[in-house]
Design a protein that fits this description.
Elements (H helix, E strand, L loop, with lengths): L3 H7 L3 H12 L6 H6 L1 H11 L3 H14 L5 E2 H8 L3 H5 L2 H9 L3 E5 L12 E5 L1 H9 L13 H16 L5 H14 L4 H9 L3 H15 L5 E2 H6 L5 H12 L4 H4 L3 E5 L6 E5 L1 H7 L4 H9 L5 E2 L13 H13 L2 H13 L6 E7 L5 H12 L3 E4 L11 H19 L5 E4 L3 H4 L9 H18 L4 E6 L15 E5 L4 H11 L5 H10 L4 H18 L5 H19 L5
Parallel strand pairs: 8-11, 8-12, 9-10, 10-11
Antiparallel strand pairs: 1-3, 2-3, 4-6, 5-6, 7-9
Helix pairs in contact: 2-4, 2-5, 4-5, 5-6, 5-8, 10-11, 10-13, 19-21, 22-24, 25-26, 25-27, 27-28
């Protein structure tokens, strides 16, 4: 019976065997006679590593040199074995096979003092292999399990990282990805991606872009990513042109969106909402986390603070009707009836009036009271100096809104605040390219309003600038006038509770101010009281009222934009 001590005595010292082979290889010219002389030792190493006899010899030389040299070049191997570097170059297939088995790594050769070096190829021993040799235990490579789209994308992107570091060749990259795809064909994400993107290089590119998305990179430079998935410059050019021109299946299938950069020669891409949805299929934990992500332009109804608003009688009645209409139960019944009768279900409204009359805040309070979030459109972000970019951005607004509607329990309100910036009167044909772009944007919006399946509210201070074609697209149009004296006195009391009722009535009758202007004066009142320690007099309040009136008159001077 063997004892534990017997086991220890019989354990091979593979480092000594490697040393022996390397020493025997000195000036051997890698001749057949030398190979025969080290047959026994070389076979032990080849059996341990799972490689051929000549590969075990080459490995032993590289391993020995690696102790004194960080990266071992082809020329240094040739010097050790005493032959011409071309002779060693004849064994490149064997060396590449050692690389593919991850026994050695290809490294970037350090600068040598010898300017006559004919190669920049250099290698080093995989540290895991060296540790296994010192322990005398065969290396056990755990095969990472791939259970969902996240782990699959990470595995593929890890291989792309190895290729970028020149640790594996492109052929090895493609072969390993092919193996992964075969072994994990049941993953729904992979099945759908292969169906939509049959081209291998496009598919690998898409998967790598998915990993970039995981890392938080939304807009990604296209050209550097393409270079990671194919070495062929012609194919790189084809990919770049077909994607940037929208002819690639990645774009046609709605997985990638193109985003031009400041420099027209460059191009950025990002995953579309469709791609993001596909990306998280089968990953329940990630889907849960994704749904918790908050869009910066999405305002939750639970975050909207209550503000008491005061209206003239006619406005109040119309707004109360709109609020009742948008209550979830009423809205749901209305949509069903409209669908049944063959009518369009979208509801678009226009809130117009002077600044400070409560248009925007009314939208917020309606959203709060009906349990609807607000998808707020930043008009400035829909404008770009690049040809075609503004049109794409405005389309994105409606695409994003449609996606929000799909997941929302109650459809959110799409809010175009100060909408005259994009709803303005269309220009005559033949004007500048800027005018043509604005016309194109308005045509897109008109079509989107026609096809709307949700709730859109636009606010504006300048109805005279709106194109007449928008009139019939708005189901409800509410004009916000200045509050009448009765409403103004209520606003005064609400904003400054310490104000005596007779004084509130006096201010309301003497000064024709909007709610926003009264709010400005209320803030001045509070600031004055905090700094001075006493409440401002009625005379002081009236002087502020005069200032607000003067400011309003000044704003009228000049021309309209």
């Amino acid at each position: 019976m063997k004892t534990k001590s017997d086991g220890r005595r019989t354990k091979k010292n593979f480092i000594r065997i490697v040393e022996t082979i390397a020493n025997e290889a000195v000036d051997s010219d890698l001749s057949h006679q030398f190979i025969r002389s080290v047959k026994g030792s070389a076979d032990e190493i080849s059996a341990f590593l799972g490689c051929t006899r000549i590969q075990s010899v080459l490995f032993s030389v590289i391993c020995n040199l690696n102790f004194s040299i960080k990266t071992v070049s082809l020329e240094q191997i040739a010097t050790w074995v005493g032959c011409n570097p071309i002779t060693v170059a004849g064994y490149m297939n064997e060396i590449d096979d050692l690389r593919s088995k991850k026994i050695i790594r290809k490294e970037a050769e350090e600068k040598k003092s010898n300017p006559k070096s004919i190669s920049t190829l250099a290698w080093s021993v995989n540290p895991e292999i060296f540790n296994a040799l010192t322990k005398g235990e065969a290396l056990k490579r755990p095969v990472p399990g791939i259970r969902d789209s996240y782990e699959l994308i990470k595995a593929v992107s890890g291989l792309i990282g190895q290729r970028a570091a020149d640790e594996i060749t492109f052929n090895e990259l493609w072969q390993e990805i092919t193996d992964i795809e075969k072994k994990h064909s049941k993953i729904e994400f992979l099945r759908e991606v292969k169906k939509m993107i049959p081209d291998r290089s496009e598919r690998i590119l898409f998967i790598h872009l998915c990993d970039e998305y995981y890392a938080g990179n939304i807009n990604m430079e296209l050209i550097p990513k393409i270079r990671l998935v194919t070495p062929d410059e012609r194919r790189q050019l084809e990919l770049r042109l077909t994607i940037s021109n929208g002819n690639s299946l990645l774009v046609q299938q709605g997985l990638l969106e193109i985003r031009e950069t400041f420099f027209r020669s460059e191009c950025e891409v990002r995953l579309s909402p469709k791609a993001v949805e596909l990306l998280f299929k089968g990953s329940k934990n990630l889907v849960a986390g994704l749904k918790k992500e908050k869009s910066p332009d999405l305002i939750s109804n639970t975050e909207i603070k209550f503000i008491k608003l005061f209206y003239n009688r006619e406005e109040k009645e119309k707004l109360e009707f709109v609020e009742q209409l948008l209550k979830p139960c009423n809205y749901s019944n209305l949509v069903k009836r409209l669908e049944k009768s063959g009518n369009k279900t979208g509801i678009a409204m226009l809130f117009s009036g002077l600044p400070g009359t409560g248009k925007t805040e009314s939208v917020y309070q309606i959203a709060r009271n009906t349990g609807r979030d607000i998808c707020r459109v930043n008009i400035s972000e829909t404008k770009s100096k690049w040809f075609g970019e503004s049109e794409r951005l405005i389309k994105e607004v409606f695409d994003r809104y449609r996606n929000l509607c799909k997941d929302a329990e109650n459809k959110p309100i799409l809010l175009f605040n100060e909408a005259d910036g994009v709803f303005s009167t269309r220009k005559q044909i033949g004007d500048s390219s800027v005018d043509q772009t604005e016309n194109a944007i308005q045509n897109i919006i008109l079509q989107e309003l026609e096809d709307l399946d949700g709730i859109l509210i636009a606010t504006t201070n300048m109805t005279q600038n709106l194109d007449k074609a928008f009139d019939r697209r708005f189901l409800y149009k509410i004009t916000f006038g200045k509050p009448v004296p009765e409403a103004r006195s209520e606003i005064w009391k609400n904003k400054i509770p310490s104000l005596a009722k007779p004084n509130a009535i006096k201010l309301a009758h003497n000064h024709d101010l909007s709610g926003g202007q009264i709010d400005n004066i209320a803030r001045k009142f509070i600031t004055h009281r905090i700094l001075r320690g006493i409440s401002p007099s009625l005379q002081q309040i009236e002087s502020w009222c005069m200032e607000e009136s003067v400011t309003k008159e000044i704003k009228k001077i000049g021309y309209k934009i």
